[in-house]
Amino acid sequence: MNVRLRDAQPGAASQLEVPARALSGEKARPLLQVDDVCRLFGPEQGCQEVSFTLYPGEVLGLVGESGSGKSTLLSTLSGRLPPDRGRVRYRDGADWLDLYAAGEGRRRALLRTQWGFVEQNPRDGLRMSVSAGANIGERLMAQGARHYGRLRQCALEWLRHVEIDAARIDDTPETFSGGMRQRLQIARNLVSGPRLVFMDEPTGGLDVSVQARILDLLRNLVREFDLSVILVTHDLAVARLLADRLMVMRRSRIVESGLTDQILDDPQHPYTQLLVSSILQV
Amino acid sequence: MANMSETPQPGYNFAYLDEGSKRMIRRGLLKAVAIPGFQVPFGGREMPLPYGWGTGGIQVTASLITPEDVLKVIDQGADDTTNAVSIRQFFERVAGIASTTRTREATIVQTRHRIPETPLEPGQIMVFQVPIPEPLRFIEPSETETATLHALSDYGVMHVKLYEDIVRHGHIATCYAYPVEVNGRYVMDPSPIPRFDNPRLHMSPALMLFGAGRERRLYALPPHTEVVSLDFEDYPFEIQRPEAACAICGSTESYLDELIVDDAGTRRHVCSDTDYCQARVKAREAAA
Amino acid sequence: MYVAVKGGEQAIRNAHCLLAHKRRGNTARPELSVTQIREQMFLGVARVMCEGALHDAELAALALKQAAGDTVEAIFLLRAYRATLPRFCASRPLDTGAMRIERRISATYKDIPGGQQLGATFDYTHRLLDFALLAEQEAPKPPESAPARADACPHIMALLAREGLVGEERARAENEPPPDITREPLAFPASRAERLQILARGDEGFLLALGYSTQRGYGRNHPFAGEIRVGKVDVWLEAEELGFCVPIGEIEISECEMVNQFTGSREVPPQFTRGYGLAFGSAERKAMAMALVDRALLAREYGEEASAPAQREEFVLAHCDSVEASGFLSHLKLPHYVDFQSELGLVRKLRRDRSRR
Hints:
The structure holds three protein chains of three kinds. Chain A is built from ten helices and ten strands.
């Protein structure tokens, strides 16, 4: 069954649009509401006619081939690229915040507290020349943490969460392997206790064995900290492992969306079928 | 208002700048005083001294000075260093004003790299020469980005630098141009004064004005402004205590220059503030 | 008492006296006159006027004499003088189409309306030292037949624009005053008018190197020298009380328009774009380099990736002024012993801490 999420309204979501978890109280209320977002660089380049609702604790995968508009959509959703048209709203407690109507100050504050962004290339998301501890502590310092000892305690705790040896706390990411850098970037984002994390091909540049470890780590962290995630990937295996729900993009539009297993096991749209079969043949 | 006929240097206005330029600078200074620690862009003029040699401070002084003012100019704390002499001569030449080396007698003190040891008094104006006004410059080179960081009070990155100091050196290793938070709002570069001088900025009864000529920025600390040197709760800001006494006046309280007095590398220390040092010597002679 | 750095007034006076003495040199030789510099070193004078941002050949020549031939120092002298001058008004835009042309070339067309004209150029000279110039000699004769003055010399760019092949430049509204970077602080992002003003005063060597870097692939923009023209133009003022324009004199300028490739975007079909350079006097190297850098700085406006040094507005504009740069460089010669003292104390302390560990 092909679930068309763009018809969804806040609070009026059908049972099929949300992960198969028990919904109660806070969880039943949407976290992110996207209405008819459009950002185009050329005909069918970018994204258009995108609407969906994201719920707390939900992992949404954006899949599609390169050039389909996944990254543009992710930038637009995450406050980095204003859409030509449409709205992105985020629920902050009881209030709905219109992302691009809000001032830059509010948006930036959101980005460094309640939101996270894991870049494909950790160089873009880390300060490569400062220590791992300072990388982790930066968000806390930006929020006013002024106790060196406690900042270090917190950094050590997060190094443990992402399985980096505590002895590396004073080393710079320059001396880290690709996988360690990616794990450090994840820690740097999660330290502020975000509710929503955007990830752009988080395992893209890594060896297969390293990928598996990161995926495993991400899956555990998502559960442990009850994160909502919007994940861009071209790798359906990554999507299957992490995502509750998928949106398939092709030529700037969402062509199909629904629960991950449903999409991968019983694709409806011809493009999705092609995508799934091409993977399975490998 | 001074007129051209009183001007000691023919062909130039009193204090070199034309009155329109002075007004423009004073407007910038008023804004700077109204928003302590905020860097006000201004249409800096080319001065007949090179950029980097105090053109910002000179423009601030030129915009404020009146024929009644008494000017003191110091560089590295001393009145007789070449650049201090050069700037003092400039104002004697273009404004014909009286100058002094005595901190107490001065109405305006233009300085590079020091705050006098003698406590400042209400009504006095300190004018600082500033090379790089942006405290975030060496962390974030883009002007557009630093302006945004200031606007949003997004100063986490400043503490990242201090954190790294502690990681590497065991304590905060910034010894001059030590960043301060002004009036609970803006992070400010106090100009390259040694951090020894930072406490003198806090709640100073004097008006403190900062001019960066090349970078075209003005900023200010109005009298009695709260100025806090950035630090961590468990690594509080502290000043480097002098390790010796002045070889001339015996002071153990003042900031000292280190001199190498012979080929064997023998070191001696003397006060960097020459006026303070001489006053102590005179007082001692008078007492003897 | 230690006195070496506390040279004071006498030391400064002596230094200046010595400088004046060295500048004059051997008094058995005749003194170089400002007129000689102005007339026989006119290319040096042009550079000082251009980067000094003041069109006054007499004062520029004086500055060069006073600076003993140090161009950057001469530019600084002229700038400092310029800053004291009142600004009465802005002239009308120069009509370079009506230039009385001394030199005009295009690398894009073999033949152009009005024709190509080599003028006085170092191009095609063989760079062999002419030892005959060591001795005073007979004045060289002017060329036998002065090239025929071309009557109509339309801008090459205008011909391309007529076909819609080159993007239109945004014209300033009639009553909109031009920005003045010497009066108002610059804010980023800067307007193109502000950028061009800064580039026009910018250090020729810096712009040359940046322009060159775009040619070598750091922000390549496929330039063609669409047109270079050197000659005299009238400067017109609109006298408000009169209600009409009056010419106040003529100046010599060099203008360069580069034709650059642009692949087009969603809204705009493929077309050519323009890099613009203008300099006082005969200074086409400066004008060409400026045009390359101007076009590189348009990357953002054209939605191009702006990652090369020449494309980074803040980097280019903040560092292209030789007066600012040489001032800040030279300030390293000022005493820094207070700051050095505190670093010295720190390094000693750190070394002590380490040896205790």
